[in-house]
Design a protein that fits this description.
Helices cover 75% and strands 0% of the residues. The chain is mainly α. It is elongated and about 85 Å long.
């Protein structure tokens, strides 16, 4: 999943050539209306007449990206940056391009220059945070997101990305606060209910976690990760039948989701070791690299003591 990524579309009149203003406005309108091919043709006309029209170069680069022609996109972005090496919008677009192509160091280099020119460039801050995160520099990423939120405190993108990062840094209370803020702005976001549920679970607030997983599943009934985590919370509360119902639902949505089979085996270990064993066998077939773990559990199904050992480990691991 891409945690961070926002492209700065240079839909602005940066060094607009006087004779092409009308065409440029038309191309921008086409882009906003989703008429990509018409926008591309119009930018081509502008650049045939004026090859150094920076705004048209940047916007055409955005279109090339959408079309998957990354070589042409980079060519347009680099030419725009060469023509105007210190314009923050141009640098931010070039940095965002490198970020999307998984070149975080090149991305950071461009964001750094953009932020030297414009320290309050929100897009550069959010995307530099993404690049830092990509490299594992989580503290630096957090600093950039905090600065971005000082500029736009209600930015849903920055709020959610900071909450994700807070969770990764074990700042669970801050993550919960961030997701709560995000859900206030977007109360039907199943993914953020799931994410907040995971943060609640991390601080042992299992009732809150179950409530959030319930909301995630209600909003998106086929949400496998939320179903699986809800099954864990239901199991922990002693509601084994409901937990098994969620695991069976997962298997109908994604019959290759290995944890559902293993967890089903764990739950069934005491009452039905035959069914437990069959689920471990499926897990082993789908996940052969961990065959030793499944074989060990299958072996434990042979005795009462072994089955109790499995169920105890399962309870302790949740």
């Amino acid at each position: 999943m891409k945690k961070y990524l926002l492209f700065a579309l240079a839909l602005c009149f940066v060094f607009a050539g006087c004779g092409n203003d009308r065409l440029f406005k038309k191309a921008v309108a086409y882009s906003k209306a989703g008429k990509t091919e018409a926008a591309l043709k119009t930018y081509n006309r502008i650049l045939q007449d004026d090859p150094n029209y920076v705004s048209a170069l940047v916007n055409r680069g955005v279109i090339w990206e959408k079309l998957g022609d990354f070589d042409r996109a980079e060519e347009d972005y680099r030419k725009a940056a060469k023509l105007n090496p210190y314009h923050p919008n141009v640098l931010t677009n070039l940095g965002s391009f490198y970020l999307s192509r998984n070149f975080p160091l090149d991305a950071i280099s461009n964001f750094n220059i953009a932020l030297e020119v414009d320290p309050n460039n929100f897009l550069a801050l959010v995307n530099r945070a993404a690049a830092y995160q990509n490299l594992g520099y989580k503290r630096r990423a957090l600093e950039d997101l905090e600065r971005a939120l000082e500029i736009y405190p209600e930015s849903q993108l920055a709020i959610v990305n900071k909450a994700i990062l807070d969770y990764d840094l074990f700042n669970y209370d801050d993550a919960i606060s961030g997701y709560t803020h995000a859900l206030y702005n977007d109360p039907k976001n199943a993914q953020n209910f799931y994410r907040r549920g995971m943060a609640f679970k991390a601080v042992n607030r299992y009732g809150n976690a179950l409530a959030d997983f319930n909301m995630a599943v209600n909003l998106k009934p086929t949400y496998v990760a939320a179903l699986y985590e809800r099954a864990k919370m239901l199991f922990k509360s002693g509601d084994y039948e409901s937990a098994l119902a969620d695991l069976n639902k997962i298997k109908t949505v994604n019959n290759k989701f290995v944890p559902a089979y293993e967890f089903t085996g764990d739950i069934m270990a005491i009452e039905d070791p035959v069914t437990a064993t069959s689920n471990y066998m499926v897990a082993k077939r789908l996940d052969p690299k961990n065959y030793k773990r499944y074989n060990a559990k299958i072996a434990l199904m042979r005795t009462d003591a072994g089955r109790r050992k499995v169920i105890k480990r399962t309870v302790d691991d949740i």
